[in-house]
Amino acid sequence: xxxxxxFSIEFFPPQTIEGADKLRATRAKLAExxxxxxxxxxxxxxxxxxxxxxxxxxxxxxxxxAAPHLSCIGSTRPQIREILQRYKDAGIRRxxxxxxxxxxxxxxxxxxxxxxxxxxxxxxxxxxxxHIEVAAYPEYHPQAKSPRDDLLAFKRKVDAGANSAITxxxxxxxxxxxxxxxxxxxxxxxxxxxxxxxIVSFSKLARFSDACGAExxxxxxxxxxxxxxxxxxxxxxxxxxxxxxCEQLLKAGAPGLHFYSMNQAGPTTELVRRLGLA
Length: 278
Ligand code: FAD
Hints:
Radius of gyration: 18 Å
Order of helices and strands: EHEHEHEHEHEHEHHHEH
Helix content: 40-55%
Structural class: alpha/beta
Number of strands: 8
Number of helices: 10
Mean pLDDT: 95
CATH class: Alpha Beta
Largest sheet: 8 strands, parallel, barrel
Distance between the termini: 10 Å
Strand order of the largest sheet: 1-2-3-4-5-6-7-8
Low-confidence stretches: none
Bound molecules: flavin-adenine dinucleotide
């Protein structure tokens, strides 16, 4: 692998002052790897959103490229317009545009119902100011009516003006390659960057994967389960499997990699080092 492969790193906004301090330290270590940008997730609901703004602006002040995620569910057009203006004023040039998920108990989906409508709104409001990334699902979005419907939903986001896409994480190389072939057949030519989830704790990952529709292949699941509480073996095997997946993806022509850091420096640093990307 060579350093010409760009990669990016994702954070979630910290909930506490200690979390913010820890993230600063994590970011300082990860910045040494010179990623193309750091993205920061965004949730439905007021206080969480403020923490996204704070984290994004802090990254930007440090002279690093920050790319905020922006979800539209539960929001009005004026609310989104205001957020776009804040980002424009701060010199942000890249946004990850998503539908998002409503927190349980919240019924109102807001004015923009799907991510393609958000992409169209951002383009209508801000022209070409932002590079717009959208989400892609090689193993299909859990709410999709069918694989074909999901592919067409992805195409609508591209047709609305998305510049590139980042995938949900996956551990099946073939799922990504098949999805990419299907996109090509649909005339979709934007870069589709695999989202990479390092594996540090198997039980947490298994719960999370069930919820977001990412499959952990049986052979991996069985092997992780066989390690029981042996955290070192889980980490070592996780690193081996994910490094191999990344190597295969880059060999197959993936345009870059996006690491879900989970706000930890160690696993992403080790992967980037093993892949020779820094
Ligand atoms: P969409 O592309 O709108 O698709 C959502 C579902 O609706 C799909 O099943 C699609 O097939 C279907 N669909 C689309 N259009 C139509 C239509 N016209 N009629 C019927 N069905 C339709 N979540 C957050 O809350 N905050 C984040 O920061 C965040 N970051 C993410 C980053 C990445 C890279 C990824 C992959 C996911 C992220 N998510 C985040 C999760 C994401 O918000 C959820 O997966 C959400 O359920 C879907 O968002 P989307 O933008 O993919 O939606």
